[in-house]
Design a protein that fits this description.
Blueprint (H helix, E strand, L loop, with lengths): L4 H18 L5 H5 L2 H20 L6 H21 L5 H14 L2 H4 L7 H16 L14 H14 L7 H21 L7 H20 L4 H24 L6 H15 L1
Helix pairs in contact: 1-4, 3-4, 8-10, 9-10, 11-12
């Protein structure tokens, strides 16, 4: 007997609704969708969940999670219609994976802290993959900074990493120097592929620095972008009006906007 009958009933209702929407007498829009058309909605809904988490908006979070869950049920329903898999197999797959990769909870394994749990998770995952690279299943479609972080983390689990954060800081400085050297050598060349490559190396090194500090480079950049947008909006009318006609004046306005946030 399930300990969560209400949750099961709610999830079953969602599955039934989606089945009806895709049925012969269902919704024309839902019936027209396919896997490729839903890709954008999966990404959009995931980013909206991230946004309400960042905003600490617990009121909005259930609805946004529901929108994301809908995409899982939607795709599962389409696969079910083709006889490929259904939503039960999706749920079984993640349940089996969670049990398999938590032997310290569901078996006789041991893990003293979160780092040991992550190491065990990656080790089990590598065993499941069998032969091949530890990098094989990192999607090329990931946001670039998030993918850089994951590539670095996987390589680190294989033993390819700096022993301490100081080494990563030195690498960041080295990559910045190489950007400056490339800029000097490509002076006057617009959109230089050489400079682009060096900037990419710098960003990759910064992603590794964030990883070593236990931070997400994607989240860090998102917060900095939000901060920039907030401060620029605060001074934009004064820039447009011509009040700040040179860099020194704009810098003064920027510092004023920063001071108002403290």
């Amino acid at each position: 007997m399930s300990e969560h009958p209400e949750a099961e009933a709610a999830f079953g209702r969602l599955v039934d609704i989606m089945r009806r929407l895709r049925g012969p007498d269902g919704c024309p829009w839902d019936r027209e969708q396919d896997l490729r058309s839903l890709r954008r909605y999966v990404l959009e809904e995931a980013y909206e969940v991230v946004q309400v988490i960042d905003d600490n908006d617990m009121e909005a979070l259930p609805a946004e999670l529901g929108d994301l869950l809908l995409q899982v049920v939607f795709i599962s329903q389409m696969a079910s219609e083709e006889g490929i898999f259904d939503v039960r197999q999706v749920a079984d797959a993640i349940c089996d994976k969670l049990v398999r990769r938590h032997p310290h909870v569901f078996g006789d394994g041991e893990a003293e802290n979160a780092d040991e749990v992550l190491q065990r998770w990656e080790s089990i995952k590598h065993e499941e993959r069998g032969s091949g690279s530890v990098l094989d299943d990192i999607p090329a479609s990931f946001p670039a900074l998030a993918r850089a972080e994951k590539l670095g983390r996987r390589a680190a689990h294989a033993g390819f990493d700096w022993p301490d954060v100081e080494g990563v800081v030195r690498k960041v400085r080295e990559e910045l120097e190489e950007v400056e050297e490339a800029m000097a050598g490509e002076a006057g060349v617009r959109r230089s592929p050489v400079v682009e490559e060096e900037i990419g190396d710098l960003l990759f090194a910064i992603a590794n620095l964030a990883r070593h500090l236990g931070l997400s480079p994607e989240a860090a950049l998102r917060r900095s972008s939000e901060k920039f947008e907030r401060r620029f909006r605060a001074i934009e009318p004064r820039i447009v009006s011509g009040e700040a006609a040179d860099l020194a004046a704009m810098d003064a306005l920027w510092e004023d906007a920063k001071g108002r946030e403290r």
